[in-house]
Amino acid sequence: MSLITTHVLDTTTGTPARGIAVKLVGSEGAPLGSGTTDADGRIADLGPEKLPAGAYRLVFATAEYFASREVAHFFPEVTLTFAVDASAEHYHVPLLLSPFGYSTYRGS
């Protein structure tokens, strides 16, 4: 299992956001993994099983998602920066998305 997983929910429709491309990027900007949300809005295999402690980013390609639905939107991309500590436990980073806002939290 990937150390980092994500889940995207479209809060305007109350449904999973299918087909969003997501990149996992290291602190130096190097790509570490990528995937596309499935029918349940999830990516379970986003990157390596282990990562050193540090800052990482998830970059969500939201413009394509909203454009495919012909929905006006404000954020063409959402970037979430989070810290991985040395304990190397699993990190689930969900995104709650709407055309003009978003929120996130550390999931389980």
TrEMBL record:
Identify the Pfam families for this entry: Transthyretin (PF00576)
Sorted alphabetically, the keyword list is:
Hydrolase, Purine metabolism
Subunit details for this protein?
Homotetramer.
- What reactions does this protein catalyze? 5-hydroxyisourate + H2O = 5-hydroxy-2-oxo-4-ureido-2,5-dihydro-1H-imidazole-5-carboxylate + H(+)
Q: What is this protein called?
A: 5-hydroxyisourate hydrolase
Which EC numbers characterise this protein's activity in its record? 3.5.2.17
- Spell out the molecular function terms from Gene Ontology: hydroxyisourate hydrolase activity
